[in-house]
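To: structure desk
From: M.T.
Subject: fold request, one chain
Message: Could you run this one when you get a chance? Sequence is below, nothing fancy, just the single chain.
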Amino acid sequence: MLQQLRVLYPTAPIYTSVFNPSVLPSDTAAWDVRPSFLQYLPFVTHYSRATLPLMSAAFGWFDLRRYDVVISVAAAFAKNVRTTTGTNVCYCLTPPRYIWDLHDDYVRGHIGRPVLNAAARWLRQMDLAAASRVDDFIAISHTVADRVRRTYSREASVIYPPVDTAQIRPSSAPPEPFYLVVGRLVAYKRIDLAVAACTRLGRRLLVVGTGPERKRLEALAGPSVTFLGRVGDAEVAQLYGRCKAFLFPGFEDFGITPVEAQAAGRPVVAFGRGGASETVVDGVTGVLFQDQSTYGLIDAIERLDRSSIDPRACRANALRFDASIFRERMSAAVERALCHPEERSDEGSLSLGSLRSERDPSLRSG
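Reply: Done. Structure tokens follow.
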């Protein structure tokens, strides 16, 4: 996402809370990245979660009123930057779920729950204040737009995240008899359902990714399940094209991997809520299931066996999320913001807010 914004605005400075260039590709060395005061705290790259109470202040410290437009890419407090009225365009990944709709899940059973509840009340006030600085909310999906409406009482347009469909293409060979999961091995992704379903069915499953859930998942897995660990992008693209179907049993706000699988012409079996309900066409590019359980997924896999999915339909659906469409729509959003000119200095015309993602943890934001 940040790379595509850089394609649009290659000279725009990037403001972020903490920057760790050592884990980024070498070409990012030329980027104009400006971290906050958090960058200078001892051991911050190793203990960034400890800085959460300071995140709102860190972004509020940035005075960006000299820019014509500021794109704040936010999962929490990056939208708190100071801007001139009419210039803060927030590309909202989600309102921070750990203080809003999923707070109870985060603190359940925690010994420090009373303290965490008090901290969450304070952080909600900070988040609402940050949201009040946003002039135009853009959500990554209708799922997130609805959450923005419920959390901030604000409307949000939708621009889906970019998917590089040019790098992932259908295979000319027939699919092989295995299912595929790609993602971090964390609890909320519900990869346990894919492992359990394929174990019960005796179907071959390849699991790509690492994370704290690996040992638990390995204990659940039968002989038909193989854990590949970390795999390079080129090999993942090949696996997409070779698999019988891609399994996506978790709830995601968007979910890029199901779109990537469809770009390779392969069907997706997905939990029918959240982003997958917007990216997978039930009965056309895959199968959606509503019962988020092992048996719900087994039933969906067996329904897929009885279906006839056209790889061309999968590919055509994925093209709706191509990076070129993201760039076109984000450019139009910036142009709309520029229709409200204010007096500004000659220094710069656009600034990019910060982004935190699983694939790029070196740029950290609130």
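Reply (cont.): The CA atoms of residues 207 and 227 lie 5 Å apart. Let me know if you need anything else for the meeting.
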